[in-house]
Amino acid sequence: MTITTVKPTKPWMARPAQRLQSLGVFLAAIAISYFVVQISDFKGKLAYLTVFFLAFMVLDFIYQYLTLSKSAAKDAIARAVIAFGMAVVVFPIFSILVTVFLRGYKGLHFSLFSLDMRAASMNDPIGAGGLQHALVGTFLMVAIALVISVPLGILTALYLTEIRGRFTKPIAFLVQAMSGVPSIVAGLFILSALIYTVTRAYSGIMGSLALSILMIPTIARTSEEVLLLIPSDLREAGVALGGTQWRTVALVVVPAAKSGLVTAMILGIARVAGETAPLLLVAGGSDQTNLNPFNGPMASLPYYVWKAYSFGTAESVTRAWAGILVLLIIVLILFTTARFLSGRKG
Amino acid sequence: MPSATGLPQRRELTTKPRFSDKVFRGIVTTGGLSSLLLLGLIFAFLAYQGFSILKMEKFSFITGSQWQVVLNDSGAIDKANTAFGIAPMLVGTILCAIIALVVAVPVSVLAALFLTFYAPPALKRFLVAIIDLMAAFPSILFGLWGFFILMPSAEYWAKLLHKYFGWFPAFKMEVPIFTRSPFVAGVVLAIMVIPIVTSISREVFAQTPLDRVQAAYALGASRWSMIRAVVLPYGRSGVVGGAMLGLGRAMGETVAVYTVLNIVYQVNWHVLVGAGGSVASMILLKFGEAGAQEVKALMAAGLVLFLLTLIVNSIANAIVAKSGGKGR
């Protein structure tokens, strides 16, 4: 009697012959896209991509229709279209990242962080001057905005999750409405409410206030999501041990949500660090380092980029890209930290 | 009742909140009302500053297409010749936002479908991370990139559109200037709203009830027929809501539009012609050299923009909140 060992099979997987045929379809589509671009008047990288996609779709449809069925062919078309949509979404992201790094690194040098523009013009060679004033300004304004927004944002989130009073629904609605306020409207508001009526001068604090309006909804919404994830067992346990609501929230709920709340702050910073329009309206913008947010106009990174871009010469545009690169790196660091924190919690 | 054995005094049991709780609730409620207060203040101050202009222009502030300030000899505003009307900019805002949605929504829905039903987990995590990152890019970055990198390509696409679809009224051109057109601005805006629409659509699609998905597969559906029969009907209203959120964002965008759009004070429905408008960018453009009266008019324009985005966003949020639960 012979022992037969059954070889495990995976009938749902593609057989080698099928894989080879699919590869053939793929290569044929590449060949077609090459010839079409050579012959027709469509040109450029995107033309290759588009023609390849169309060719692949048609060939795959025919292949599936002949080997399998009509519904498999439809499925193949849908798959190709959906993958193409994804590619279209991803393409600009990589284009932006690559562009900023390639164009920005030429403008980087060490004195960028130790000099400001008081002795240099935008048209000077890249080595002259730097963006210290812009970094300091952005840092100060965002820090003050954070000091204002964190209490208000987290209190709003606590109201929505812990108190759950009469106004919960309207406030949830208003917070969402507020997160849609255009940034320029925030600038106009500070302009109309404070600058034209009270101070009559640009200053960093006005920039901070304008940024707060954009920051509060971001912090409130993220914090709310985080606080909703805290199991209510924890709250009940706190109350059952005799804690008042205040002590339960302060000693149990908020510590449990700590990393999430930090994430909310970081996302808030990332939201406003690149805001340009409101700062153009209310913070003025200067060429020298200003450490006093209450007096005198204050520069910021987006303002620096804006100004350098507006100059329009080769040197100034290089400066603009370098500024954008620094700003993008800051956003990337903030974003990665936020991801890391929220990932660790889960 | 003090006792000799040292037992603690009996506590009074009550359901009334303690003093500390009252203070806590008071503070949190006050903080919670801050958004109401801020929105109210924004409306109040913009309306206060813009009131005189709105009163002078009445409805023609929205319908009029002239924007000129004429001062008489005493330096006061000459009411007969001064006109503030934001119709061209309003038309431009809506036009750019609609182009943005026409480009962004199909692509975003496809991407959301890919992320939810096609992507392997590791790829999905990576793609979701970079799409979220894209939502955090500063708008001036989109502006610069749009101006230097996207514009040449977009111009070429515009020429193709004009060549092959020139019979379509919106693609007509009297003057062949393809740079800095509403079409280019719309494409830049589309790239800015793609992350929003994609992530909302993805969240809605991910909520599709698993039993319906599996029922479709059990009945022999292919992946595409499952999506068509279950996911799309279920997620339709959520996608509409996400698209409207993107619309709100596109309407309020300032700097990115300003860098790529050639702002011309003229109602222009021809999207490929290099002349357009946008309320937000117009405010930035005119703000620099505006006199006292003109600034008030800009405040009034800001009020219109504020209300417009508020309405669009509110409808969008209501739709997103109500989405789900339907479908076959």
Structure explained in plain terms:
- Chain A: Belongs to the binding-protein-dependent transport system permease family. CysTW subfamily.
- By secondary structure, chain A is mostly helical.
- Chain A folds into two domains: 89 residues, no CATH class; 214 residues, MetI-like (MetI-like fold).
- Chain A is built from 13 helices and no strands.
- In chain A, α6 packs across α7, α10 packs antiparallel against α13 and α12 packs antiparallel against α13.
- The mean pLDDT of chain A is 87.
- With 328 residues, chain B is an all-alpha fold.
- Chain B has a domain of 206 residues: Orthogonal Bundle (MetI-like fold), CATH 1.10.3720.
- Chain B contains twelve helices and two strands; from the N terminus they run αααββααααααααα.
- A two-stranded antiparallel ribbon of chain B has the order 1-2.
- In chain B, α6 packs across α7.
- The termini of chain B are far apart.
- At the A-B interface, α3, α4, α5, α6 and α7 of A face α1, α2, α4, α5 and α6 of B.
Give descriptors for this structure.
heterodimer, A: 346 residues, mainly alpha, MetI-like fold, 0% strand, flat, B: 328 residues, 2 strands, transmembrane (chain B), MetI-like (chain B), membrane (chain B), cell membrane (chain B)
Compose a concise summary of this entry.
Chain A is mainly α and 346 residues long. Chain A has helices spanning 16-39, 45-67, 70-104, 132-163, 168-178, 183-199, 204-229, 232-240, 245-256, 258-273, 277-282, 301-311, 314-345. Chain A folds into two domains: 18-106, no CATH class; 132-345, MetI-like (MetI-like fold), CATH 1.10.3720.10.
